[in-house]
Amino acid sequence: MTGGRAAWNVVTSVNDNEARNMGLDEAPAHDFRYDRADEFMEVVHGHWDTWEADAIVADRSSGLYAHGDKVHRLDHQGAHYRSRGPFTVPRTPQGHPVIIQAGQSGRGVEFASRWGELLFMSNPSLSRAKDSYATVKSTVEATGRDPSQVKIANLTFPVVGRTMSEAEDRRAAYDQLPNLIDDLSLLSEGLNFDFSDKELDEPLSAEDVAAMTGIQGIRNQVIEVTGNQTPSVKDFVEVSGRGRLAHPVVGGPTELADYFEEWFTAPACDGFVIAGTHMPGAFEDFVDLVVPELQRRGLFRTEYSGNTLRDNLGLTQPVPGAWRS
Questions:
Q1: Rounded Cα gap, residues 95 and 98, in angstroms
Q2: What predicted TM-score, i.e. pTM, was given to this entire model?
Q3: Confidence (pLDDT) at 36
Q4: Which of 51, 266, 291, 316 has the highest CB neighbour count under 10 A?
């Protein structure tokens, strides 16, 4: 339908409420979620490969739609799933949708390195991002994949103005909007842990921290930044940025372009996930004010590289079955 412009953001669910929607009493253990997700990815990739690229003939005169010997059953039998196939949809023009993944815990990085093509990272500082970039790329290579075919994009919250002064005013206005209830609700959802009965400045116990079975990248980042194995609730609010601007980049076109150029050339990432700080207007301001300056510096395209998302990310066509290696 899109001509090869689709992506799939693969996420393992993190909290008990999500699990209950699927007939479970609670969310499965962190590493088990990824074990099961590995097999799920094998099933999905197997289905995408059930149609060979030249299977469709669509010859009206002969009445032949597709070569039957180029459409295959999957017949997957695994520990968690059984699936026969073949897939009901022919192979996409880009081979298969681009796989987006955001695992940042140890097991999450392992999963992302095996399957991800565009990795969603959230590193708050340049030094941390550079270290993470190098680690993930080396992990990808260790799995036998080409690191250049796995793009890393860092989450960024730009607060843009025509001038630095205007941008700072916008940041000040934004800071009046979040409230603590939102922060704690989103932290509880993301970490699968109830913060409601904890005092703000109260250090959490080791048992509390261990009970955070949700997004462990958030938990690990708070521990790393604070240097404390039992951070307080306030530490989680301030370091995670959950529910508010997380490490925003504030400035006019020049300051914002300087930031992106430094991170991109370090290298600390291959690109960025631009998060809107307000709607409507945030993305329009970024496009109108920052993109022209990035283009002037030769850091942003002025035309598309091809017709598919894979083309424009600089990713090659996936070879059927290559994921099995």
A1: 9
A2: 0.85
A3: 94
A4: 51
